[in-house]
Amino acid sequence: MQSIDVKVQKALDCPCVADLKTGPCGNGFIDAFSCFLRSTEVEKGSDCVQPFIALQNCIKENPAAFSKEILEEEEKDEEAEKSNLKVRAPAWSRESKPKL
Q: How far is the C-alpha of 78 from the C-alpha of 97, rounded, in Å?
């Protein structure tokens, strides 16, 4: 059985993610993707929120570096937030937060 580090490296070596690794958000992509692959949480990746937020912010700051399809997905997410649809957040994100 392969170690998780070998599996992560194989996944990162895939030509399908080459552009993401070498673009302006390459380090953020590698951090978030690696974290997700290494995650052992019941809700896989729930311990990787911060790296994915950083990646999302980088993508928003560098729109010219990403395909139209990726940016359209982002717009659809924003449209969904404005609609009357209700999406239930994962349990880990519903922890009580201190009121400011």
A: 23
CATH number for domain 1-99, candidates 3.20.20.70, 3.40.50.300, 1.10.287.2900, 3.30.465.10: 1.10.287.2900
* Spatial contact of 14 and 34, defined as CB atoms under 8 Å apart: no
Task: Please report which confidence band the pLDDT of residue 34 belongs to, taking 50, 70 and 90 as the band edges.
Answer: very high
What does the alpha-carbon distance between residue 26 and residue 17 come to, in Å, rounded to a whole number? 10
Query: Does the predicted TM-score (pTM) go above 0.90?
Result: no
Identity at 6, one-letter amino acid code: V
Structure tokens at 34: 């690696």
Q: How many CB atoms lie within 10 A of CB 20?
A: 20
Nearest to 45, CA basis, from 53, 33, 29, 58: 33
Chain-centroid distance, C-alpha 20: 12
